[in-house]
Every structure is written in C-alpha cells, then in structure tokens.
Write a structure and sequence with these properties.
By secondary structure, this protein is of the alpha+beta class. The chain is built from three helices and eight strands, in the order E-E-E-E-E-H-E-E-H-E-H.
Length: 183
C-alpha cells in the first residue's frame, strides 16, 4: 500500500463530486497520508453544494465517519456515511430546517439518489478496506471540487452562506493529502 502497511492505521476516502472520483488515502505509521488509488463514481445525484433536506437528491458535502457496513444492501454492499454530522445539524438549527435526510451510502450498483454508487467490485474493495481498517479509523471527505488544484465552486451555484466555512474545513482536510499521482 504505497508506504502504508495493511491494514492501514487510518484511511481517508475522498469523494470529489464534480470530478466524479473517489480517492483512497492511507496513513503510514508516522501518520503521513499516501495516495493509494482512485475509483470512478458511477452515479451520484445532485450537483455541487451541500445536502439541505430529505428528498433533495443531493449528495452531502463535509467530513463524515463511516457508521456501519451493510453486507445485505439492496445495492450489493454498502458503507453508511455519518450524515448529518454535527456541523450539518447546527446549520439546519440556525436556519430552522428539519428533516435533513439520511441513509447516505457508498454502495455498489450504478444508480444513486443522494448516495455514491461505485459499482459492485469497487464496493467490495471499499467494504473490506473499511472493515479491516476499523470504522473508527475511516473518514469520508465529500468535496464539491478538488480545492488542492485551485478549483472553486461557481458563483452561479446556489450555496448557503455558511458554505464558505464548510469549504474551508474541507480544504484543511485536503491539505494533508498529496495529489493523486499519475500512473
């Protein structure tokens, strides 16, 4: 695993919405993250911008744990993303929003309504990696774009005012990750 032992101590699954890619980073014994590999996201509904409510078909944006693994998923296998997190709940409370939605998964197959559909073989790889690493050692970062490459979210995107705070939190997470190496 490119400088990291297996199972790695910690893993970051970085989903880049606009790029439609999920990258895996593993920490070496010193805690330095190394790029492991990249997978295409086969389906993800919505556009850039955070998930705001149930039924908006939006993939959330933020920093999340993996809450559980489901070997009996309707979509082959699934990893349950810990949406909404504390940040999502606080913003909703500040704006008087309720019914934030949930059941956000990284799963097999190639269809999505707010989830990241990865295909069955990739879902198996991610499922085993998360199980072997330990769910408490896996972080999912869902970003609108790859901020490390100087990309930004279009001014035309209808974003809540607090998106700047969210995106700066995501940028801090991304700063610890090397750019994907070209193979």
């Amino acid at each position: 695993l490119a400088g990291a032992s297996y199972p790695p101590r910690r893993v970051i699954l970085l989903a880049l919405k606009r790029e439609r890619v999920l990258q895996i980073y593993a920490a070496d014994p010193k805690g330095v993250y190394h790029f492991i590999r990249s997978y295409p996201i086969l389906a993800a509904s919505g556009d850039v911008g955070p998930k705001l409510h149930d039924g908006d078909d939006q993939v959330p944006e933020g920093i999340y744990p993996i809450e559980s693994l489901n070997p009996n998923s309707a979509y082959h296998l699934s990893l349950r993303v810990g949406y909404p997190n504390d940040f999502d709940r606080q913003q909703a409370k500040n704006e008087g929003r309720s019914k934030l939605g949930g059941d956000i998964m990284i799963h097999g197959d190639a269809v999505s309504i707010g989830c990241l559909a990865m295909g069955d073989e990739t879902a198996e790889d991610l499922f085993v990696l998360a199980a072997d690493t330990g769910l408490s050692n896996v972080t999912v970062v869902i970003a609108p774009v790859d901020f490390r490459k100087g990309k930004t979210v279009s001014k035309e995107a209808k974003l809540p005012e607090w998106s700047a705070v969210l995106y700066s939190q995501i940028e801090v997470q991304l700063a610890a990750l090397p750019l994907e190496e070209s193979k």
